[in-house]
Every structure is written in C-alpha cells, then in structure tokens.
Amino acid sequence: MKLATRGLTRAGTRAKATPAGTRIERPWMDPRDLWTEALAGVMARPVRSALTTLGTVLGITTLVITIGVASTAGNQIVGRFDALTATSVTVTVPSVAAGSDDEPLVDWSGTDAVRRLAGVDSAAALADSPLTNSVQVRSNDVKAPGDISGQTLAVVAASAGLPAGVRGAMTSGRFYDAGDIARHAQVAVLGDQAARLLGIKRVEDSPAIFFQGQSYTVIGILGGIRREQRLSTAVMLPPTTAADRLGLEDVTQVLINTALGAARQVARQAPIALAPGQRNSLAVAAPADLSKARNGVQNDVNGLFLVLGLVSLVVGAIGIANVTLVTVMERVGEIGLRRALGASRRQVAGQFLLESTTIGLLGGIVGAALGIAVVVCVAVFKEWTPVLDLNLALGAPLAGALVGLLAGLYPSLRAARMEPVDALRAPS
Amino acid sequence: MTPGPVPVPGPDLATVPIPVVSDATAVIELTGVERTFDSEPPVHALRGVNLTVRRGEHLSIVGPSGSGKSTLLNTLGLLDRPTSGTYRLDGVETTGLGDLERTALRGSRIGFVFQSFHLLPYRTVDENVMLAEAYRRPRPGLGRGTRLARAREALDRVGLGHRSGFRPDRLSGGERQRVAIARALISDPALLLCDEPTGNLDSENTLSVLELFDDLCAQGMTLVLITHDETVSRRAGQRVRITDGRLTQEPE
Q1: Between B74, B132, B136, which is nearest A421 by CB?
Q2: What is the ipTM of this complex?
Q3: I want to staple A412 with a disulfide (CB 3.0 to 4.6 A). Which of A192, A349, B50, B127 is the partner?
Q4: What pTM value is reported for the model?
Q5: Which domains does chain B have, with CATH numbers?
Q6: Coil, helix or strand at residue A183
C-alpha cells in the first residue's frame, strides 16, 4: 500500500497556512514526555537493552583502560625520572695537568654561585683523583697477627653541601660544616657502606680512621645516597684538609639538583656560573627532554589498544543499530498508533533516537566505571598512583551516548518514514 | 458505569479561529471525494463520495472487504489524502493542509479505536490512556499535571476505574477495547473513529462495548463506526453502505 501515500508532499509542509487563514496547532511534545516514552521503550525489554549495551561497554572500557593506564604509567615513569634523573645536573671538570701553574677551572666557592641560579635546589662540589681512588683505610692502629689490616676505599674531598647534593641523609653524627673546613679540621665522614666495612656503627665515641699515616676523627656517617652512589664506600674529607694532606685541591665534579623542569636551563647556566671564562671546557650531563621521550613510548604502546577500543566501539554501535532496527520493526504497530495519536515523523524519530542514545549512554557509564576500576586496580597492583583525567571520566559516557546516537540514526529514520496507514495494520 | 455530566466536545476555539463553515454542526463533510491508487490497472477505491456527519450523530459504515471501507476510514482519519474532492473536518478544510498540520489535527480532533486495540503491552492502562495527550500542546487548564487524573476519569467513564494500574495483558479483550476507547476520549475529540471495534471480541464483550458506544452517543459524542458486521451496524442511528467505492444510504 505504498501507493496510498503517493502524491503526499513531504517537503513544503511546514508553516503552511490554510487558504482561509486558519491556524492549526503543530504537533508538540513536552521534553519530559519524550524522555518518559524513550525510557519506557528502553525499560520495556530490560534484558535486551542490557545486552545491547555490552558492545559499547566493552569499547568504552577498553578505551578508558588504555588511556587511563597509559597516563598512570606515563606519570610513574616521569615520577621516577623526576626524583633522580630529571632534576640532576652533573658538571664534570677536566683536571688541570699536574704541576702546571694554571688556576683550577672551578673554585670551591663555585657552588655558591650555582646555588644562586633560579631553579637550583642544592649543589655540592667534589674532588677526587686516581691517586686517592683506592686507599688502604683502617679503623684502628693496632696491628695484630692475621688481622685484616684494613679496607681499600676511595677518599674524596667534598664541600659541606654534599648530603643535599647526593640527596642523602646523615644516619649518624653530622657532616662537617664551614667551620670545620675553615679550621682545616682533621675530621672525616664515612659513606654508610664504608662505615660498615670498617666496623664503625656509631660516632658518639669519636672513632678514628687511619690512612697514609694520618688519623682522622669520624664525625658522621652519610647514608641513603641516591646520586653518586660510589660515595657510600668513600671517605669524605673537608676540602681544606684534603688539600693539605692528600693534595686533593681541584674540584672535579659539581652535583646540582634542580627543581622539576629547571634541569635543562640550569644545565645551560651552571658552566657560566662555575667558570665564567671557560665554560666550554666543562662537560655537563643533563637529563634528556623527557616529554618527547615519553610521548614516543606512549604512542607505540597506546596505538594498538586505541585501535582495539575503537573497533569495539564500532562493533558496539553496529550492535545498537541492529537491535534498535529490530525493535523498530517489532514496534511498527506502536509507531502507527503514535502517528494516529498525533505524533509527527520527527517525534517518532526523536523517540527512537533517544532510546538508542540512552542505551549508548548507559553503556558509556558502565564502561567508564569498569575502566576506571581496572585502572585503579592496575595502579594498586603496581603500586602506582592512579592518574585519572576528569575529562576522560566525563567524556567516556558522552562518547557512549554519541555512539548510541549515531547508531540510532538509521533505525529512527526508518521509523519516521513509515506510513501510519501501513504501520497501523501491523499487530501492536 | 455512572458517568457524570460530560461537556459536549467541540472545536478548540483557542487554536482554530474557524473561517467560513458551510454547516456549523457538521463534524465531517466529504464532498466529491475520489481516491485512486496508481496501480496497473488503477484502483478506484472511492468514487464521488459525499458524506456529512453532524455533531452527536452515530453513523455506521458497513461493507464487505475490498469495498473501499479501509480507504474511507483512512481518509476520514487523515491518514490518507483524497485524490480529489474536499474533506472538511470539524470546520477545517483538510485537503490543502501539510503533513504536520494534518498530524496535529488528527491528534486533537480524532479519537481512534482499532480492531486490534493497539495498546502498549509494557505500559499500565493509565499510561496507555495518557499517551494520547503526549503529542499535543497542553490545553488551557488541562496541563501535564492533570493528565493522570483525567486518564482515571476517562477510565471511569468506560467503566474501568478499578483496572487503574493494570497492564493490558491482564485484561480481557473487552476491557482492552474499553481502555483504547478511554484513550480516544481523554483528548476530547470531535470525532470517535472506530475501525471494526468488535472484530476481535466475543459476543458478550461485543455487547458491552456496543453498550458503551450507546452511552457515549447519549452523552453527545460523534461516532463513526466502520464494520462488516450487520448486527453491530444495526445499532447505529444512521447507516451507510459502501460498495465498490460508492456510498448508499441504508434504509432506517
């Protein structure tokens, strides 16, 4: 009976006044009624609606997990770099040829200049030399037969700011200070491993160590060293003392810790502050630009899963479209009835569109919740801090709704195109 | 089954300032209506149909299948357009109207009663009745908030006040048809258009529905009933027969 409708002008039907000038009310629907009808349609077959959401749930879950885990993991990687590498700048000073009269490139007071740079948290200078890299150190002067006569340890000179410079902490006693350095005090601080090797556990009774025929009072043990970990097996002396006794005069290394994000700028400025005239002679080790590195890694990992999630979404959309189409075909009689009751084509289309959008939205909400739960579980399992973008949490349900909306377009169009005469003939 | 005084349904003057009306009491005026389907060979479903139904009349259109009954019903219900001729419904000339206006007119002036009831199985009877008001702009004093009360009132009017809250699948066929009639009544239509209303009912239920129609007529409702059943047809005040697309007056 398609013929029955031939000659009906579908276009040009809007805002037409009758010849006599009568105004006739237009089909009108309260948005609340539209919502009620759509919701009732979804809830009429709850199991089917629930099953229909599955594809969207799967797709949204995959996307949320992919994006959520990636951003969580990405931030953890950066977090590790932050703590160590990303804020660490090391300046290596080439040693001046022995015996030459040249001034050392970097003075011990150079760390003060570096510390004044913006973004620098702490700085410390170190001096070591091949001659002092393996020194026989003993913790007592008594020679007993068969006794191990000592340990081979490195001896370095370091500025008073070293504990901060290596991000360590005194586990016992104190580090020497400016006063000790000024007095050329014959004191030493041990790295925690060095102290263990020498059998020194505490410094309250002022233990002494001996090397190269000299004795030093141990005033502290430095532990928890996170930079230059070789120092945990080293003996640290005030620079003045080391210069006097061992000839360790010239700074060979400057350790700088910066604020997050300041490392590269500090790396450019530090050589100028340390050796204004000869900054090019200094070798600077600064962290690579991590943001680029991280993006590269993420793109590789995420690409595949994003594609997977999008494929699931497409499958979900096809599922919704399919089921909505079946629903439309099952409800032909209902469509005819609504048209007979005064529903316009647009209102019929609107209802089915809203039904499919609701199903998509439900899928999106469930998917987002599941995805976030999985991200949190992964984070707990890996002992990470979950990083969840609010846009992701809010955008995922919207994406689901969009999928439902797109999926509902064709079935809604089919429903709207039905002629009431034909539709009413179907059983309700 | 004790309906109170019911206002005589009339045209909604707030929305339609009626222009020239040839017969002020006519609800339906068909003049020279033809309906031809462009098949090969062309089918002349309606030929030169003239029909006037006045307010409060009870008309039955009887005819065998294939006589053009359905086409006439579709034309009267604004579901189909005549090929030529004019159709004035409740004073509004409809043949020149667009799809949207015809839809709105259908929703506000015509109450449909179908053979297969067309109730939504997943909604309560109250919701089914209220559905008829969903596609209309609320009339003054009859807002959305009053809808449930009016649905109950309509159910009372068809004698189903005690079935409020039920789902259609728990009702008998006669009760279902009464719900459908209540749905048609809630929007105060100018015309109740019934398509084989008793076609799916046993004789007992048929009788109760026909009694309800008599009551509604007594209250001033305009009723057009299309049927092939002579016993149903005989209860109407006026009867016309349709044969091969032509109307003939039945003897009283």
Answers
A1: B74
A2: 0.89
A3: A349
A4: 0.67
A5: 26-249 (3.40.50.300)
A6: coil
